[in-house]
Specification:
single chain, 391 residues, alpha/beta, Enolase-like, domain 1, TIM Barrel, 2 domains, three-stranded antiparallel beta sheet, 40% helix
């Protein structure tokens, strides 16, 4: 029997940066099911629009009565959220819509992803943020330096490999007097340059049989036709940026390059995909938006897409984008946000849609919650094995 929404509750909470966020709880005859909204520091212009928590609190009493008594079916609820929120959810807040959508999704499946998506065939490799900078805070212009434990045979081994790489990097930086703390995503912050950081991480990753990748977050570096690397003391034209990215991919044998160009440069993504043997992933380029992904598929702009539920605004929308990617041989990469919570819905999502990769960080309780959920569902799924990924 389908469950019915008996009650709907809104709570003001705080994310990993100490910023106000929201938690939505849905009560059915099966229990209470909750979800939280994260927030990104480097948010693209095409994402669902958030509302201030105070504004959501004011409109919530008027909104919630529309959902009481309805079946806890996320597709039905998502249609209503789009009707109330508008195309970009600006009227009710994308942060509210995704929290409610995920809470209803959990209620409908009773927190069992296998009921929602079917039994998992394989599990994603975690892309772990080891060292960082850019908009997330740190000493480098490149935003994320990532480890991919591609030889891991189990999700437990993959998690342990990423933890070990992070600890080895921390010890190496401490020994040299370069460590300067941790940033928004729990990544190490150092006084090393971007290239020295790549030297360090590539050497460590090789010892563990892992590959490395980077998130350039290039829209944050781009202004008036140039990409400015202030820490390197260099500015690149669009053509020079392409050559710089290619050089890094080839020199460090990068398995993964995310947002190497600004969020409207489909042509450079296309050219890089033709020249580089690497996963070329769009985040700000696509913003988890099916319409923008269609353009990327048509133009050959990369071969992978970041999926952030709060960019899309509802579970239905993120599932639609994921299916579009799968049908067109784009790699789905489910991702957390820099201002995150201990909500672990993205772990269920990654397993459910068969995403080969998940970005969920390494250190920090809000990051560990995602890994712990993957380990938990690995056991309940009967230990199905890791994704097949050619890099």
């Amino acid at each position: 029997m389908p469950s019915t929404i008996k009650g709907l509750f809104l709570f003001r909470i705080y994310n990993s940066r100490g910023e106000p966020s929201i938690k939505v709880s849905v009560m059915t005859e099966k229990g209470l099911f909750s979800a939280c909204a994260p927030h990104g520091a480097s948010a693209g212009k095409y994402e669902a629009k958030n509302l201030e928590v105070g504004k959501i609190e004011k409109i919530f009493p008027r909104i919630k009565k529309n959902f009481i008594g309805l079946e806890a079916d996320f597709s039905l609820i998502d249609e209503m959220l789009e009707r109330f929120g508008g195309k970009d959810f600006a009227k009710i807040g994308g942060n509210f819509s995704i929290a409610l959508s995920q809470a209803v999704c959990k209620a409908g499946s009773q927190n069992n992803p296998h009921r929602l998506f079917g039994q998992a065939k394989y599990f994603p490799f975690p892309l772990g943020n080891v060292l960082g900078g850019g908009a997330h805070g740190g000493g480098t212009d490149i935003q994320e330096f990532l480890a991919m434990p591609i030889k891991a045979k189990t999700i437990q081994e993959a998690a342990e490999t990423n933890f070990a790489i992070w600890r080895r990097a921390a010890s190496a930086l401490k020994a040299k007097g370069f460590v300067a703390g941790r940033n928004d995503e729990g990544a190490l912050v150092s006084r090393l340059s971007d290239l020295k950081t790549l030297d360090l991480l590539s050497e460590i990753a090789e010892d563990f049989g892992a590959r490395i990748g980077v998130d350039f977050a290039a829209s944050e570096l781009y202004s008036r036709g140039e990409y400015t690397y202030s820490k390197l003391g260099k500015s690149f034209s669009e053509r020079e940026q392409l050559e710089f990215v290619l050089q890094l991919i080839r020199t460090y044998k990068l398995a993964y390059a995310e947002d190497p160009f600004q969020q409207n440069d489909f042509s450079s993504f296309c050219e890089l995909a033709k020249k580089a043997k690497c996963i070329i992933c769009g985040d700000d380029l696509f913003a988890s938006h099916a319409g923008r992904l269609k353009k990327g598929i048509k133009t050959g702009a990369g071969n992978a897409v970041i999926l952030k539920p709060n960019q899309a605004g509802t579970v239905s929308r993120i599932l639609g984008t994921a299916e579009l990617a799968r049908k067109n041989n784009f790699i789905n990469v489910v991702s957390h946000r820099s201002g995150d919570t201990c909500d672990s819905f993205i772990s269920d999502l990654a397993v459910g849609i068969g995403a080969p990769l998940i970005k969920c960080g390494i250190m920090g309780s809000e990051r560990a919650a995602k890994m712990n959920r993957l380990i938990e569902t690995w056991e309940s799924a009967g230990r199905p094995g890791m994704a097949k990924l050619k890099v």
